[in-house]
Design brief:
The protein has 327 residues and is of the alpha/beta class. The protein has helices at 11-22, 51-54, 74-97, 140-156, 180-189, 208-220, 238-249, 259-268, 274-277, 285-289, 299-326; strands at residues 2-6, 26-31, 39-41, 59-62, 104-108, 163-169, 171-173, 202-203, 205-207, 226-230, 236-237. It is globular, with a radius of gyration of 20 Å.
């Protein structure tokens, strides 16, 4: 198949590009900074010659959008909104104008669309959409509006010959440097991976292998459209999630952090506490109903695999540095 990945140079795009290319598919990445023969330049906002890559493709998986790993200032929140809505709109325009439109358009969304809650899990049928919770920062509602507008833009695109799926993805865990797992593992290794603000807030996640398998599953399943949660069936409270990660790496202690300490740490990391404090208790209702079988349904097994791969990558990097240094 020919698969086009707008915004495919980030962590999730790199995971998909690597796996789909290894499976023998022709993968074209739309990016602002093309570097490889399979990269095509685009700006994520206006139609251009890049649209030729969409015409005749089998699948489009749009991953474009400003990274959420930043301080949630009004300027950055607006950039998150604009980059997601504009790129989704223009992908829809390219599909609508195509003489041979793709059969399916998978659009990245986010599990952040659901409400901050501890009492029950959110699936697609009964989950509570966020934005009106009490006792949380006001700007959290804007993150929900970003997700809603993201999905609405795809849903309203006039593409009658293309099936549309919105991927409400939890945090994708891979050992790649710079990804969310890499950050969490670094905290654990430093002894800082303890409960944050009590640790009762839920962490939803998905192993990178299952993320790729779910994308492939949704491409093949012609009867599935609309919003689909991409999350492992076992979300955990943050304190337990980090306890498992520490134990897997072999770190006995993780220092707890209060809310203000989390604020200070997020400021130092140029990130935001919503990523730490919002309870994302999300489960994959539609995937399970459709018969998808997770290879990594539980965090303990997934963490073990990710740690093993992270150790192997570090060992490989060490050997490479030794050879370069000795050469």
């Amino acid at each position: 198949m020919k698969i086009v990945l707008p915004g495919g140079t980030g962590q999730v795009g790199t995971i998909l590009d690597r796996a789909l290319s290894a499976a023998g598919h022709e993968v074209v990445v739309l990016t602002r900074r093309p570097r490889r023969p399979q990269d095509v330049a685009w700006d994520g906002a206006a139609l251009g010659p890049w649209a030729e890559a969409v015409d005749g493709a089998d699948v489009v998986v749009n991953l474009a959008g400003r990274s959420v790993s930043c301080r949630y200032t009004p300027e950055n929140l607006r950039a998150m909104m604009d980059s997601r809505v504009d790129s989704t709109r223009v992908v829809g325009e390219a599909i609508a104008a195509a003489r041979r439109p793709p059969k399916v358009w998978l659009q990245m969304s986010t599990a952040t669309v659901y409400a901050h809650r501890l009492d029950a899990a959110n699936d697609e049928a009964t989950g509570v959409i966020g934005g009106t919770e009490s006792g949380v920062p006001d700007y959290w509602a804007y993150s929900v509006e970003i997700a809603k507008n993201w999905e609405r833009t795809q849903a309203e695109a006039p593409t009658p010959d293309t099936r549309k799926v919105a991927l409400r993805a939890a945090m994708v865990m891979s050992p790649d440097r710079g990804g969310v797992f890499d950050v969490l593992l670094r905290l654990a290794r430093l002894g800082l991976g303890g409960p944050v603000a009590g640790g009762g807030q839920y962490v939803s996640w998905i192993h990178d292998e299952d993320f790729v398998r779910a994308v492939e599953f949704l491409i093949a399943r012609e009867d599935v459209a609309g919003a689909v949660n991409l999350a492992a069936p076992g979300p955990l409270p943050q304190r337990e999630f980090m306890r498992v990660l520490r134990r897997t790496w072999g770190v006995p202690v993780g220092l707890p952090a209060t809310r203000w300490m989390a604020e200070a740490g997020a400021f130092a990391l140029r990130s935001d506490t919503e990523l730490l404090l919002k309870s994302r208790r999300v489960v994959p209702g539609r995937l399970r109903d459709a018969g998808f079988a997770f290879a990594w349904p539980g965090w303990e097994g997934a963490a073990g695999d990710l740690v093993r791969r992270a150790r192997a990558a570090r060992a490989g990097s060490g050997r490479l540095r030794a050879r370069v240094g000795g050469g």
